[in-house]
Amino acid sequence: MIQNTAHDLLPLENIIHRTASRPFSLHRTVLSGDENCALYLHCHPEAELFYLEQGNLDFQVENHTYMLKAGEGIFIPPGLIHNAFNLTVAGDSCIYRAAVFSVDMLEKSLSPYCRTYFSPLHLRSMDCIYPITYENQKNTRLLSLLPNLFIFQETALERYELALTGTLFLCWQELYNLCFSGLDSSSGNHCRAELQASLDFMQQHYPDPLSLKDLASSVGFSEGYFCHSFRDFTGYTPFEYLNRVRIVKSCELLAQTNKKITEIATLCGFNNISYFNRTFSKLMNTTPSGYRKTFASTPSQ
Question: What are residue 102's phi and psi, to 5 degrees?
Fold first, then answer.
């Protein structure tokens, strides 16, 4: 079990979450009602089951926003940008927990005929975001299962690993029943695999001076068709999404290095410092220097 204060989490978690050699980790975070940022913008290649134990949060995944209160949670598919703002009354505490795990850990432990339980996540990840709230009465069982993921605090791995994996499977079954089973991977946007590949392309080439032609060509689409399909798939224009990727990368550098802000802007694909500052402030609700002051783990210049 990993216990954090709000400032211990990295803005971009490009590490593999592990407990010993296992591809999962459990986190517990405590913050006061005076701290506005509960979870700052980041993403990771693992899936996440988030559980709000105490307080109130405004939770954001990509272009979706969810209001969570104590006892509720949310499922976040791999690779999606997410963050949260603390709505807890000043003077009170906000406590949340997260189980971050590799989907492969579950999928590869089953026979090939069971892959139908996972295919929607690979092809329609944006549609697999699932708020686990009291508002939907069908969530009763999943709401009762969530806390069971976090009862293993201070327990030796060999005394809970199978129970944790079993609980993740139970949660996954509920997610499949409530959400994934209703997603026909062959319907809707028929080019979802290509569009997902375009997101991967942005993650790999964000420092480059990418044009719309570059982005469309990466998946073999015309520029017009790419723009229309991309916005339908993500809710953003291609360059709105690319800027989000670049800002997330800049957050990592601001927090973990002492590089100058102008250098960070260039490394993250911005050739204009004024545009970088405006884009950063709009997305993060603070300036790059303000973000660094709050979250830096190394001295800044």
Answer: -75, 130
